[in-house]
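Progress note, project year one: complex with GFB.
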Amino acid sequence: MNKEDKIYIAGHRGMVGSAINRKLQSEGYTNIIVRTSAELDLRNQQAVFDFFDQEKPQYVFLAAAKVGGINANNVYRAEFLYDNLMIEANIIHAAHQSGVTKLLFLGSSCIYPKMAPQPLKEEALLSGYLEYTNEPYAIAKIAGIKLCEAYRSQYGSNFISAMPTNLYGPNDNYDLKKSHVLPALLRKMIMAKRNNAESVEIWGTGSPKREFLHVDDLAEACIFLMLNYNDPQFVNIGTGEDISIYELTELVKEIVGFEGPIKTNPEMPDGTPRKLMDVSKINNMGWKASISLRDGITSVYNEIKDREWDQ
Ligand code: GFB
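Model obtained:
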């Protein structure tokens, strides 16, 4: 992938897509094309086909998706399955039809079975039942992996897939009902400190463990794979370390400077007990995450600490 090659970032306004855009621009890539969802509804097959015919991108980062935390996944089950299936099927087929040189598809760590041995190896895919709360999203992402594999097998398409762990960073979603845990904890603690609240409530028991990768690290890994990786096997991307939700809450509490107690709410689901990725494959290729969780959360906190939220 040369600096003047035409690169399309699908989902450029999202947390992942905007991080890839920032990283590509900082590395001197000058021919990046993007479309907002108002300009191009990626669920509309003909519109996507027309766009690819017209623009003929050479490289595609498929970061567009309908995403959200455990509650959003569990409530909007049809949208998470339909939207993500349509987006990936349209873009992957259009990439094939228009002769894209290489495409990178972004999945998620939720593709793995709920009780798969930890750390999660790529080979564990489809070896057991999925976690109920995000099964629609996981099925859609597994279908995306299989589409890339099938187009490579039948047409020789150089379509690769990356499976990131839980992400955080600039441009995250802070809607308390739809967001992932880390942005939710930051918002809850910031507001609790600002309003001298008595305590902060977290969902579930606090005992599940999660791995958190800063989205700038992910963007660097995606460009690394686009430049260096051409095999059928999808690749895990993570830090290789995890933390319990309760410990994460304590870390956020310390960074924000909130001093009240943490209360758990077992009425809300815990989801998968643990989903630590085995990242030896990408580490052995020469890429390793570099942003520590404490530094990453601190940088996000400094960016949003004065933001106005309604409560
Ligand atoms: O980040 P999260 O929503 O998604 O939840 P998952 C992680 C853990 O944090 C769960 C707990 O055990 C939640 O119960 N948690 C505690 C909270 N307090 C909160 C809170 O205020 N908000 C949220 N959101 N969680 C997602 C999948 O699963 O992982 C997605 O649903 C995607 O599809 C993503 O795969 C990477 O990590 O459980």
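DSSP finds ten helices and twelve strands in the chain.
The two ends are 46 Å apart (CA to CA).
No further modelling is planned for this target in the current period.
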